[in-house]
Amino acid sequence: MSEARQYRLVLRRTARGPSLQLRVSTPEAREATLVRVGGGGVGELFETMVDVLKRHGYVEAETKRAVMTAYRVKPEIGPVVGGYIILVRRARDPSAWKPLFEDFITEKHVGAKTVLSHLLSLSEDLSKISPPPKRVRMKLNPKILDGVSAGVKVLARKLWGLRKL
Questions:
Q1: How far apart are CA 149 and CA 153, in angstroms?
Q2: What pLDDT digit, counting tens, does each position of 109-157 carry?
Q3: Closest to 153 measured CA to CA, from 76, 83, 106, 52
Q4: Which residue of 80, 91, 100, 164 is most buried, as measured by CB atoms within 10 A?
Q5: Cα distance between residue 43 and residue 70, in whole Å
Q6: Contacts with 67 (C-beta within 8 Å, 6 or more apart), sequence order
Q7: What angle do CA 109, 115, 118 make, to 5 degrees?
């Protein structure tokens, strides 16, 4: 992954409901959505993530509009945030994973940052092999994200002894 990447954590409000997005831009390409999550509790998840990132100094700037709230995330933590969003993407209860975000960021669970950043890299590599359909308007294939999400949940439970998630 290139050092020149800029990550933005975005909460977009639409008629279909809110959606949490991680967007990436590089000097040679325009901004693209890497991961998108919708559904109940997405607003709360976004607020929790932003609060933790602010406390640890990982948020650089913000944009607030009626339909969108966005925060620029420092490049060193962007892949970890992306990996976390992939982790909670298909969770039955995303709010159960909400308290673990700070534990992952602060490395309370050994290797969490590494696992989550590699999760985003793996998803990007697999999406190059099997790109998403044009209508999806995301850089990463949703089917791949769903599969990787399911697998990493099992890994997280085994690796860090997480129960009841």
A1: 6
A2: 999 999 999 999 999 999 999 999 989 889 999 999 999 999 999 998 8
A3: 83
A4: 80
A5: 12
A6: 12, 13, 14
A7: 160
